[in-house]
Amino acid sequence: MPRHLFGGWEEIAKALRDRYVILFLDYDGTLSPIAERPEMAKLLPGVRNVLKELSRQRGVKIAVISGRALNDLEQRVRIPGLTYAGNHGFELRGTKIRYAHPAAEKLKRVLRKIAGRLKNTCAAFPGIILENKLFTISIHYRQASPKIVNLAKKLLLKTIGPHLEKSQIVLREGKKVWEVRPAVAWDKGKIVLWFLAQFPLGVRKRILPVYIGDDRTDEDAFRVLKRRGLGVKVTENFKRSTQAGYCLDSPGEVFEFLKRLARIKAAGKYKVETVKPKGN
Ligand SMILES: [Mg+2]
Q1: In the predicted model, what is the mean pLDDT of residues 145-160?
Q2: What is the pLDDT of residue 239?
Q3: Residue 274's pLDDT is what?
Q4: pLDDT number for residue 270
Q5: How far is the CA of 271 from the centre of ligand 1 (A)?
Q6: Contact status, residue 215 vs residue 117, Cβ threshold 8 Å
Q7: Is the predicted pLDDT of residue 202 greater than 90, yes or no?
Q8: Phi-psi sector, 86: left (phi>0), alpha (psi -120 to 50), beta
Q9: How far is the CA of 147 from the centre of ligand 1 (A)?
């Protein structure tokens, strides 16, 4: 069971102060309260300012990782100097980094075809919202009745069945959302490792990776950080099983954590001037 991040805070604060913190942040349900419709999800008030402050501080680097499309994510956060990973890390953009997963890039054509077919299907079901994110497709059902959800799922499986059989795509469940993704071994855990590998080895040893997220897809990241960082699950139900070692109960508490981190880094005894990725 995860421990609350603010319990035993002294020890955590010391690690945050002494090490170069790479902060991986999920967006929906982490920096933004879950909204009725995906396009309504905004940063919690105050979060933008504290992220801006952190982005200027030494000894901390921020990457926002989301299932949203990269452009959508960037427009929602709107802070220069951060790294943004969209589509669960299939595409990534930062000041010195640019990346698109090659195998996923190739499957965009198949995804486009599927999205075209699903468009009409989804439009016929009240409360079902299709979101075509190019690298992945999300089908949101938060607002649909259970009966509609059942019907829509059947039709979804029928539509994507042939592509599932050919192992071109996979279907994953998120929070009230189905995700159609390219069948590529790539997830939020792998993107975290990829990102850390961009730093020179000497620097990597001083890094404390912190990952905060609320979704099932964030579990891959918690798993890879089990022994080498802090995995923080945002959940009201602390007893729910998770790979994360720590938890916070809401985006409000994530905001509180960001403020604490900004205070720690502002007081900064951090010695290393700046740490930049190698770039590629
Ligand atoms: Mg989330």
Answers
A1: 95
A2: 77
A3: 45
A4: 52
A5: 33
A6: no
A7: no
A8: beta
A9: 25
Gap from CA of 224 to ligand 1 centroid (Å):
18
Amino acid identity, residue 226? K
| pLDDT for 276 beyond 60 | no
Please name the residue that has the structure tokens 């019907």. Answer: 151
The pTM (predicted TM-score) of the whole model is 0.86
Of residues 69, 81, 90, 80, the one with CA closest to residue 27? 69
Phi/psi-derived region of residue 208, left when phi > 0, alpha when psi is between -120 and 50, beta in every other case = beta
- Please give the distance, rounded to the nearest whole angstrom, from the Cα atom of residue 82 to the centre of ligand 1: 18
**What would the pLDDT profile of 30-88 be if each residue is shown by its tens digit?**
999 988 888 889 999 999 999 999 999 989 999 999 989 999 999 999 999 999 999 98
Angle at which helices 108-123 and 146-165 cross, to 10°:
150
What are the tens digits of pLDDT across the range 174-190?
Answer: 889 999 999 998 989 99
Partner residues linked to 86 by β-bridges: 91
Instruction: Give all domains of the chain, ordered by start, each with its CATH number.
Output: 3-101+186-267 (3.40.50.1000), 104-182 (3.30.70.1020)
SS3 123: helix
What is the 167 CA–ligand 1 centroid distance (Å)?
26
The one catalytic residue among 18, 26, 28, 72: 26
Parallel/antiparallel/unpaired status of strands 137-140 and 129-132: antiparallel
Start-to-end C-alpha separation, the chain: 39
CB 68 within 8 A of CB 85: no
218 in active site: no
CA angle 239, 22, 275 (to 5 degrees): 170
Q: What is the mean pLDDT of the chain?
A: 91
In the reported structure, the alpha carbon of residue 119 is separated from the centroid of ligand 1 by a whole-number distance in angstroms of 24
SS3 percent helix, strand, coil of the chain, rounded to 5, is 40, 20, 35
